[in-house]
Amino acid sequence: GEIKTNEYISYYWDGAMDGEQTLVEMYLEQVDNNKTFVRVTEKTKTNNEAGIKWLKSNTEGWANFLACLKAWLEYGVHLRKGAFRPADMPG
Fold it and tell me: pLDDT per position in the chain (91 positions), as tens?
């Protein structure tokens, strides 16, 4: 991907849906000295039933990710560590 400090982050997410690579882009816009607006987009999804299902299921994940990012940036608390397990891992 690409990083532009304080402006933009992009990366490719392998296997996010049916083995496809998904381009994730995060745009950062400073609102004032203490606030930043973050916009996240995912590219290359087809506008069909499967793509819409993906969108609906993934929206909550981004809300959680951004809340965790805020906790880490503002308080140094890492809420995601240990929170996710690979699908094939027992337990």
Answer: 999 999 999 998 876 666 778 889 999 999 998 889 999 988 777 788 988 887 777 777 888 888 988 898 899 998 877 666 555 555 5
Amino acid at residue number 70? K
Is residue 1 within 8 A of residue 9, CB to CB? The reply is yes
Question: Which residue's structure tokens are 């996710």?
Answer: 84
Dihedral class, residue 19 (left if φ above 0, else alpha if ψ from -120 to 50, else beta) = left
Q: Cβ of 26: how many Cβ atoms within 10 Å?
A: 19
Start-end of H helices in the chain: 49-75
